[in-house]
UniProtKB/TrEMBL annotation:
Official protein name in the record: Putative glucose-6-phosphate 1-epimerase
Source taxonomy: Bacteria, Pseudomonadati, Pseudomonadota, Betaproteobacteria, Rhodocyclales
GO molecular function: carbohydrate binding; glucose-6-phosphate 1-epimerase activity
InterPro entries: Aldose_1/G6P_1-epimerase, G6P_1-epimerase, Gal_mutarotase_sf_dom, GH-type_carb-bd
GO cellular component: cytoplasm
Catalytic activity: alpha-D-glucose 6-phosphate = beta-D-glucose 6-phosphate
Native organism: Thauera linaloolentis (strain DSM 12138 / JCM 21573 / CCUG 41526 / CIP 105981 / IAM 15112 / NBRC 102519 / 47Lol)
EC number, UniProt record: 5.1.3.15
Enzyme class: isomerase
Amino acid sequence: MAAGIERIDFHGLPALRLSTAADASAVLSLYGGQLLSWVPARGRERLYLSERARFGNGPVRGGVPVCFPQFAAQGTLPRHGFARTSVWTVAEQRTGDDFALATLRLADDPQSLALWPHPFTLELTVAIDGGRLDLELEVINSGHTPFAFTSALHTYLRVAELEECRLQGLHGFEYRDALGAGEGLRRDSGDVLLFDGPIDRHYRNVERPLLLRDDGGALGIDAEGFPDVVVWNPWEDGNARIDDMAPRDFRRMLCIEAAAIHRRIALDPSETWHGRQTLVCL
């Protein structure tokens, strides 16, 4: 089978389906510029997508939402900004013998300027080969005044059983516990991060790749440009308060997010910033 990119309808949303000759695939929605599926060659679905997700009516629960120009509630904008509920356009499509690549674009419009008065252009590039996924976010200041932003690729990973997962690579890095009440920075002291309760940690200046061990396999996770890492799972009580997640779905997902949230990224007019997250099946 040759590599290809086709336009599809995905639960009512316009989307692109990317596929490679090795039978890897991905689904990229124009609504939100959101990756909703990634299946590596001869593998299983690696992204969590809630069976109760709402499509085209607010944020879609799962996949890889793009948080811009604000992360979470750290500002005056809607939670995680407006990029994840905006309609993007197709800027580029390419395939080769062993890869498929698509770039989506989002630019300011009257609705975005009413919320955040800065001209901008975003480009999200998704590339897949046999066992690798690359996501790159480019931010361009297309206006005449500086602006600053926070951002993340809010990656929902599908796991077989959360309590059996082991995340390596965060030893020694500082983090803020977003579930703590006014607590300061902590330093991760464990060889591996285990999951036995709710977690919402914002790690700072993570300078090495991560390794997620799950169900006898492993997933390598690396980032460039994004200095921070968010690790999030709502656990049982939090899951029960999220109406677009099925009960006990917290056991099937883990968010490991490439982020730039500790310090805002500042761009002068015509300046550009890039951030990338790479997932590799090992």
